[in-house]
Design a protein that fits this description.
The protein is an alpha+beta fold. 23% of the residues lie in helices and 22% in strands. Bound molecules: zinc ion.
Length: 69
């Protein structure tokens, strides 16, 4: 589990955690996406409360597929 100290949400994976953070590292302006923004980005909240990416099996193209190729 990856619990964010900023928004308190739980993330299924580090990559899911990373993708809910937005803004510039250099400007120290990293902030969390809202739940609505995460949903718009294609993330889902699982029954146990943790957020994850929608998998390819669900028919939605996941940006994580880029890592595989
Ligand atoms: Zn957060």
């Amino acid at each position: 589990m990856n619990i964010c100290s900023g928004c308190g949400n739980n993330f299924h994976s580090v990559s899911a955690f990373d993708s809910h953070r937005t803004g510039s590292y250099h400007k120290k302006a990293r902030t969390c996406l809202t739940e609505v923004e995460m949903l718009q980005k294609g993330m889902i909240q699982q029954k146990n409360g943790s957020w994850s990416h929608v998998g390819p099996k669900d028919g939605i193209v996941a940006w994580e597929k880029e890592v595989e190729s």
